[in-house]
Design goal:
The chain is of the alpha+beta class and 203 residues long. It contains five helices and eight strands. A hairpin with a 2-residue loop joins strand 6 and strand 7. It starts with 7 loop residues before the first helix and ends with a helix. The relative contact order is 0.13.
Length: 203
């Protein structure tokens, strides 16, 4: 639950810190656009996890700063910007993968490495674009999705990007538990009672 004196992002950060010691090595946390926040990204970078977060299309991400020109004035701290919704800012990517998903449908993954946000230039991220030509292009089934990866930039980025779909099975599972199986309906008195009721719902 998110109390009135805090935010969902702050609650998520506290939950992650408690969870990380129990997670296996190289665990990946998958976040939707509601967690597109510089502060949370910085906090997660200090944890022993990878983070894949969906990007808002109006978000600006900067490329590495160009080398000093030798002219008067301080050197530039940011390179050219990339904004998902503005194709003219995409320029050449650092890599691309084309193949099929688990259901044999065509997917293209493109990535830009060593990017950063102005408010946290020390934090390097990788920007990913996933194109699914078969999608209906509705809000819950977009043809083009953008993500930021906070973790090892040398991992299999295509596999990381394709893993985002695993989130939907959990999200819709929780929704089904609440709407059809009355998970939230009983007014139980203790955490132990609610945990027992959760096991019954799951069964």
């Amino acid at each position: 639950r998110v109390a009135s004196q805090t935010t969902a992002i702050e609650v998520a950060e506290k939950q992650l810190r408690r969870m990380v010691p129990s997670l296996p090595k190289h665990a990946i946390v998958v976040l939707d656009r509601g967690y597109d926040a510089n502060w949370l990204w910085c906090q997660c970078s200090g944890l022993a996890i990878g983070v894949l977060c969906r990007l808002k299309t109006n978000r600006w991400i900067s490329r590495p700063a160009p080398p000093p020109t030798g002219k008067k004035g301080g050197p530039r701290k940011d390179g050219a910007k990339l904004q998902p919704k503005d194709a003219s800012t995409h320029a050449e990517p650092d890599g691309m993968w084309s193949g099929t998903d688990d259901k044999g449908r065509r997917v293209e993954v493109t990535w830009w490495k060593h990017m950063h946000v102005k408010q946290a230039r020390w934090l390097q991220v990788t920007v990913l674009r996933v194109v699914r030509p078969h999608a209906t292009n509705k809000e819950r089934d977009p043809r083009v999705s953008w993500f930021v990866w906070i973790g090892d930039p040398e991992v299999d980025l295509a596999q990381i990007a394709l893993g985002y779909v695993l989130r939907f099975g959990q999200e819709h599972g929780y929704r089904f538990d609440k709407q059809a199986l009355l998970w939230e309906t009983p007014r139980l008195r203790t955490p132990e009672q609610f945990e027992r009721w959760s096991h019954i719902v799951a069964v």
